[in-house]
Amino acid sequence: MPVSNLGRILDWLGAWQPYPLAMLLYVDVRHMRSINRLATLGEGDEVIRQVLHVMQEWAGDGGLAERVWSNEFVAAKVVDHGQTAVEEAARLRDRLAGIRYASMLGDNHIAVSMGLVAVQPGLRWDNQIANAAEACETAKQRGLNQIVTFNPHCGTNTATLINASHVLNFRHLMGAGRLLLDPQPIMDIRGTRPRLAKAEFLLRMDQDGRHVPLPSGTIETLEHFGLSSELDTFSAETVIGWIADHPEALARLDGVTLNLSAQSLVDGRFMNRLYHEVRGLHLPPGKLGFEITETAAIEHLELAADIIEDFRAIGCPFSLDDFGSGLCSFGYLHSLAVDTVKIDGRFIRDIAHN
After folding, report:
1. Is the pLDDT reported for residue 33 higher than 50?
2. How far apart are the C-alpha atoms of 237 and 278, rounded to whole Å?
3. What's residue 325's pLDDT?
């Protein structure tokens, strides 16, 4: 039995000829895990059945409404105008939000998140479903019962950054040996003359002999698909290899620093492997450090504190990057034994004048 109905959905859409315009919705039923945990026996399955029934009624005979998998659904129907699509999405949202389920806490309404795409004839449906799904992710971040329309021209839209081709490009670069880590110098300016103190390794790719940043959206796409550990595994192996091959350079530096993503920080298998590999290097204290963003630290505060303590016990300092970007209380710093705080650039950009 297939895990996902996406293939069948794409087959149906591929044979569909909507005119003049189609609207495509990606719908996520929120807090399904809580519904299954708190509802009476079989109530979760009944919620899924009711959601699909309401969506099929809404789509009508000429449209489509299908469950993709788990608590996610796709629906499509013909519309005559983009504004009609927005109004139809709101109508469906209101009907779905009216579905109730019985639980040990009493009767409750469900909540949904919806991503909307207006589809012109001739466009690829797999791309449009991906766009609608990304708009749905943005809707989930905004709250409950939100509808977000995918906007390919909005530079700040997270959906425009996510592209599965970035994964293929990243893996191609890695397999071809064109993925690189470049050491960025960190200078100590406390004395009369600046001194090269540390190096922070940053991800780059080889493009005709030039070391340039990866295409915009690569990191966001890897995070979206849960593949950040591939990047961090490559980075860790590269830096550990550099340390083994360049003992003289390392001896001249106070230390080198490697960035860790939030996903790798909470990946117990990855962090355990990294811990044992670093411990096996038997480096002098401070020679290899790690950096995490403030957002990652706050999001996983207790776990981050434990990891920092474990790594500091084997001589690895930690830096907190983008400090201030989370706009949180300074109080959480008491829980994190970080050695360095890197202040977000917005706070110091005009420091010489303001």
Report:
1. yes
2. 10
3. 57
H-type helices in 2-42, by residue range? 6-15, 32-38
The string of DSSP letters for 289-305 reads EEEEEHHHHHHTHHHHH
Distance of CA 191 to the CA centre of its chain: 41
**Sole residue written with tokens 């839209």:** 157
Residue 343's pLDDT is what? Answer: 80
Q: Are strands 195-207 and 179-188 parallel, antiparallel or unpaired?
A: antiparallel
Report the candidate in 112, 150, 110, 151 with the shortest Cα–Cα distance to residue 133.
150
* Euclidean distance between CA atoms 253 and 79, whole angstroms: 64
Phi/psi of residue 175, nearest 5 degrees: -70, -30
Q: Environment class of residue 192 by beta-carbon count within 10 Å: exposed (0-12), middle (13-18) or buried (19+)? A: exposed
**Longest CA span, the chain:** 79
Only one residue has tokens 């230390």, namely 255
